[in-house]
Every structure is written in C-alpha cells, then in structure tokens.
Amino acid sequence: MERTLVIIKPDAVQRQLVGRIITRFESKGLTLAGLKLLKVNKNQAQKLYGAHKKKSFYRGLMKFITAGPVVVVVIKGVQAIAICRKMLGATFGPDADPGTIRGDFAASISYNLVHASDSAESSKYEIPIFFRSNEIISYDLHNIKWIYHPEEEKELEI
Question: Residue 142: which CATH number?
C-alpha cells in the first residue's frame, strides 16, 4: 500500500470544495490515514516548494499556499500516488479533462485547488512536513474485499 500527501489549497477551502474533493478519493476506494485543517507557515511552504525557489512563479506560489487555511490529507491505497495524480487532472484548470477534480472545479492557471505528491520519494519527503508519524493512522476498512480482488489482496498483503 502506498501513502501520498494531498493538499486541498486555500482556493478550494474558500470555495467550500473540501468535502466534495475528499469524497472523490474515498469513493475511489482510497483510505484517509491523516487529515488536518491548518495554515501553512513559511517554513513548511519553503520545504514543500523548495525545488521551485529559482523559478519565476516561486514568490506567487509561496504567497498563495500561505494565504489561507488548507486541508492536508494522507491518503493510502494501492497505487495511491498515481491514482491521486490522475484524479487531479492537468496542473492548469483550463487544460484538465472533465471528470477530474481540476477539470470539474478549476478554471484558473494560478488557482489549481489541489497538490498531490508526484512520486514515492516526494511523498516520503512531503508527508513529514505536515504530519508526525503518530498522526498517521492505520486501520482496516470492512469493505476492502469489495475494493480489491482477493488475488490482489494476497499480492499486497492487505
């Protein structure tokens, strides 16, 4: 099972889309392993977006992610990283396909509603920016047998 970080950004929180976004992940069969409402501080933002420090959009990105509350979520599931990224859609709302989160809710290039880790390495780096290990909960879903085929369960040691 993979874990990934999803950040529901200030624009989505202000537009009251948090529940609708989380519902999509749960409906897909992914599990919430951690969830917080918080305001990203400067240190967290610098860690999260440090790779973009020399890019022209960095200052705007920092200002945006710290502008208001966000919801940070640790999501767990088989291929959770790839699934979450696909569910978000293209980075820019106008380019995102209908049926994706950004395709259905984002019309802006700057305000793209959601961040998700793009790899296992990113996930391992990003989750601790917002969560201590004891804040990530592991539990079994009772409907797991209806999400994964029994052969997948054996293979994944669910």
Answer: 3.30.70.141
Number of structural domains found in the chain = 1
For residue 15, give both structure tokens.
């537009």
Domain span at residue 64?
2-156
In contact, 90 and 102? CB cutoff 8 Å: yes
Distances (CA, A) of 153 to 39, 137, 138, 156: 37, 20, 16, 5
**Residue that the structure tokens 């959601």 belong to:** 114
Rounded Cα distance between 22 and 45, Å, is 22
* Catalytic entry in 52, 115, 142, 149: 115
From residue 110, alpha-carbon distances to 43, 58, 64, 133 in Å are: 21, 12, 9, 32
**Predicted local confidence at residue 61, as pLDDT:** 92
What pLDDT, in 10s, does the model give residues 100-129? 999 999 998 889 999 999 999 999 999 999
Which token pair is 134? 């004891």
Q: Please confirm, yes or no, whether 142 is among the known catalytic residues.
A: no
> Per residue in 25-62, pLDDT tens?
999 999 999 999 999 999 999 999 988 898 888 999 99
The radius of gyration of the chain's CA atoms, rounded to the nearest angstrom, is: 16
Q: Give residue for tokens 């601790």.
A: 128
Please state the pTM of the whole predicted model: 0.91
